[in-house]
Amino acid sequence: MSVGELGRNWDHCLADSAVKLGPIAFGSGMGLGMAYFNCQHDFQSPYLLHGNL
């Protein structure tokens, strides 16, 4: 395996890892944001009942 081929393989692996980590970070950020919003809402109106009637 030549040095150029090894470099291309590393570049491909790093790019693939970055693409896969991007959606995970985005999804985690959205999940944390939604949880924060729900907790903030609960603390601002603690006497409202949540759920189906």
From TrEMBL:
Q: Does the keyword Membrane apply?
A: yes
Membrane-topology descriptor = Single-pass membrane protein
Instruction: Name its cellular compartments.
Output: Mitochondrion inner membrane
Write out the coiled-coil annotation as residue ranges: none
Record keywords: Membrane, Mitochondrion, Mitochondrion inner membrane, Transmembrane, Transmembrane helix
What the entry lists under InterPro entries is as follows:
Mic10
Give the GO cellular component terms, alphabetically.
Answer: MICOS complex
Q: Does the keyword Transmembrane apply?
A: yes
Write out the function statement from the record.
Component of the MICOS complex, a large protein complex of the mitochondrial inner membrane that plays crucial roles in the maintenance of crista junctions, inner membrane architecture, and formation of contact sites to the outer membrane.
Similarity section: Belongs to the MICOS complex subunit Mic10 family.
Return the protein name.
MICOS complex subunit MIC10
